[in-house]
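Example record used in the benchmark description.
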Amino acid sequence: MLSGVIFDLDGVLANSHPIHLASWKRFLSSIGVAATDEDLEIIRDGRTKEELLRHFMGDLTHNELCTYAAEKDRVYCEHLRDLTPVRGVRHLLHELESAGITLAVASSGSFRRVHHTLELLGLRTYFHIVSTADEFKAGKATSAIFVATAERMQIPCEQALVFEDSGTAIRSAIAVGMKCIGIADDIRARALIDAGAEYVSSDFLHISLAHLQSFPFIKSKPEFNSQAQSCSV
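Model output (structure tokens):
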């Protein structure tokens, strides 16, 4: 039974990864830290901004974290004019909301950035619950953000479906009985399937409530589907 759907923000609701990659690269370069595109792939892994700063810069004091975080946010905001929603997501959100499905966001972004992004995209009103890194400092390395989000939605974890683009986040969600669908391009699809996603799509253009309810894993008792395959729905 599908009672609620939890969406990641970056790369799932918002086509924001190109903006994040560009702003992190520019920010790091401005403070003398060289990072290749391969180095920056870690940004997609569901980590908080503080975790990423420590990853690239080592141990930092609280004041240093605040200073660098503010500068990174300033650089990011300069790119926001290029922000767009992932294709098809608005239609799916409207359909799920109309059917009485509870909707939530669980993001490793800060409270301020997550809410600002949802407002910019015109998506904020769809979500009853928004969980952010301001409450869950470990990001999605643990299941805490998913468990708490389901509790706030007043649904069992087993009745929640998660849309994610991070292998780390998918593993954390399925560890508590949630089912996951990956949103990613063909290059990254295999990694999400290996993490436990039931399947992977590049966007939401062909995903509907009827489509979701047609899958056995939505109706059946939770179990890991080792036969999941990547598909372009």
